Structure formats: structure tokens, C-alpha cells
Amino acid sequence: MSRDDNKERILTALQDLGGPASLPEILERLPEDFAERSVRRWLAQLVERGQVRKSGRKRGTRYRLAEAGTPLEVREPVEPALFHFSEPARHALSRVRQPLLNRAPVSYKGQWLDDYRPNRDHYFSRADIDLLTAKGRRTDAPEPAGTYARRIYNRLLIDLSYHSSRLEGNTYSLIETQRLLLEGTGATGKLDEEAVMILNHKEAIRYLVERAGHLEPSYEEICTLHYLLSDGLVPPAGSGKVRDHGVRVGASSYIPLDRPAELERRLRQIADKAMAIQEPYEQSLFLLVHVAYLQAFTDVNKRTARLAANIPLVTRNRVPLSFNAIEKDDYASAMLAVYELNDPRPILELYRASYLRGCQEYDASAEALGVDAVRVRYRAQRRDVLRGVIQERLAGQDLMSRLREAAEAIPAADRAAYLRDLEEDVRELSPQRLAGLGVTREEYQRWRDRQTEPPSP
């Protein structure tokens, strides 16, 4: 029986049940060989597709059939709350927002790239890196590259395709983008070029996720991303290849390089320096800035830079950068500051604000789907604590002190939820839930027996 057949059995069970049903109620109507873990996974996929609705959390979780024609829940984008550029960034933006006649022509400055020393020079501050890491990391446990991106694939596909296309002037709404990507239904009255732009993002994002285990920001991979994003939008001879002619950037005094050999050399240099950068967020911003600045391709350079910037995030299982909550004009001006001033501060501040907002939205999506983001993020830490609790046979006040002590090591924003998860784990411990803890059933039983002993006088 195929997976789709299995899911059809689940849908039939929900139809027979009529109203909202718990997982045990659903399992009762399924064949005995349907493993609980598999049914959970298939239900999550049906929820993501919009065929099933999920409500409640943990033991109160209930599932029901979605109403016919109800689309996957999509939130319209929200602007970042109280976001303001810093004074230095505002100064840079004021310069590039002057009338074009007041801005002197400038050419590509290779020295800016030459001077950057991977792991010694940094665009992001240490405080920025610590903040982005705290918000963007989803687990400390070692997992295969691309695991998190696959977990949120549909959401990533919609958000990144929509926002990256929106920054290029695409007029598809978020709902229209979803329908095009998931149902293949284009919006009436829209230009065919807009649909192609979005569908090309779909192919590029799929490539990123599927190849996450073997992906690096190499020259070849950057060219491949350009090919996927530009197919059908530029002449075939220019898709995935460094251009052999000059280009100009609209509304900018910047004049890019026009020598093919030098363009290829510089793009290889960008890739080599990027691959040498160890910190994923610094690597991401470096690619975003320098791939766009070089303008190595006949068109679709900024889109290529935005997808390339996600390589280190996808491969390291961080929240992706979807470029949500960014004003199109702010983004365009920030890129002008890169082109004309070699000043990355405005785009850095947009990156930081958008990324933090994106982390919040992915957490909100996870909560809407019933995923405990804190539980997933600190899985490894919780297992370490539980292993110690069992092996040391902790009980009573000693047990609670250990749990509270463990929670103190967790960032303040997640501490209370982490402690609740630990307490629930202890309550629900059973021989069937020892997998991954590194303890034997005998150790567990000795710990369990300790719980019933009277406290020492």
C-alpha cells in the first residue's frame, strides 16, 4: 500500500468519526499494522496540505477534515514592528536617495572584496551573531543537513518564493503565490513572466533542500541557482553563465564590470571566500552582498544572491531567510548603498530585522500545527537531564532541584516552557519512552522504585 493510500485511509477514518477526533480514536479505525509514529507523520502532512485541520495541544490535540476548498492557512505579511535604521545606515540611505544626477558614477571596486579576510573580518558584530544564532537554531542535536528545511518545506517554499519575487516587483499576492506553487493555478490578469518568476523560485528552493547534504556556495552551485531562477526569463545562452556583455543597474550610478574573464574570476573569488567563512550568518550576508554587487549575470542577480544566502542556513538547519517584512523601497535603497558606497550596513540591518521576524513567524506556524518549538529546539538537553535523573535515581526535592537547575542554563525567553517540558517528560516516563536516553530498563525500574520510597528523615 502506498503512502497516499495510507493517507486516504486516515481521511476515511476522520470522515467516519464525523467531528474532531483524538489520535487514539483515529488509530482505532485504522489497521493494526499502522504504527502510531507513521500516523502522526501522515497527519502532519495532511495538515500541511490543508486537507486536515488540527486544534489543541499535546493530549488535547484533535483532528478533523478540512472543509472542501479550504486552502492551506497563509498569513499575509506583516511589517516589522518599530523597525528603524540606525543613524549610520540612514546617512548612507540619504546619499543614495538623492537624484541620480547628484550621484557620481562609480565602477566595481574589487579592492572591497580583496580586503575581506574570512573569519578575521566581519560584517555582523559578535552580538548580532549571538542573537541570530539563539533565535535561528532549532536544535543542538546533530541532524542531517536540510532536516529543518524539509520539515517546513511548504512554508519555506511559499514565503521565500513570494517575498523574493515581491522585491522584484512581482504583483502576485501571498494567496495567489500559494495557489500557483501548490495547485498550479495561475492568477488571471497577471503577466506570464510573473508566474515563471515564482515557479523558478520553486525549482531553486527544491534544489537547495534536496541537495542540502552536498551543497556549498561554490562557483558551480551559484551558477546552477542562476540557471534555475532565470530559465525562461533570460536568453538561453545567458542562463547559468557569466555574461559576455555590459549591463547597467536601473536608478543607480553604479557601472558593473563588463569583462567576462574578470567576472568569472571575481565570482570564483567570492565563492572561495564564502566557503572559507565558518560562521553561517556571516557567510550568508557575505553572499547576499557580494553576489549581487558583482552583477555577474545578464539579469536575476539579486534573486540569485538571495537564494545563495540561504545555502549556509539550510545546510546548518537554521531558520531560512525569507526576506519577509521588508519594504521593497528600503531593500532597493540598501542595495544601492552596496553598489555605490560599498556600505553593507543598511542591508545588514534589514537582514537582521527580517530574520528575527521570520523566526517568530516560523515558530507561530509550528505552534499552529501543534509543534512544540521549545521541545524540539532543546531535545538534546532534555535527554541529557532525563538520563541523569534516571541514573542518579533522583526523587522528590532532589529531582525538582535538578530540573530547575537545568532550566537556568536555557535562555530566559524559553526557560519556563523548557521547565514545563522537563516536568512533563518526568511524569510521562515509561519503558516505551527510553529510546535515545542511553539508559537501560533496569536503570529505569530502579529509578521508578525510588519514587515510591518514603523520604529520608
From TrEMBL:
InterPro entries: Fido, Fido-like_dom_sf, Fido_containing, WH_DNA-bd_sf. The keyword Transmembrane applies. It is found in: Membrane. It holds the Pfam family Fic. It is a single-pass membrane protein. Keywords: ATP-binding, Membrane, Nucleotide-binding, Repeat, TPR repeat, Transmembrane, Transmembrane helix. Transmembrane segments: none annotated. SUPFAM superfamilies: Fic-like, Winged helix' DNA-binding domain. It comes from the Bacteria. The keyword Membrane applies. This is Fido domain-containing protein. It comes from Alloalcanivorax profundimaris. The lineage of its organism: Bacteria, Pseudomonadati, Pseudomonadota, Gammaproteobacteria, Oceanospirillales.
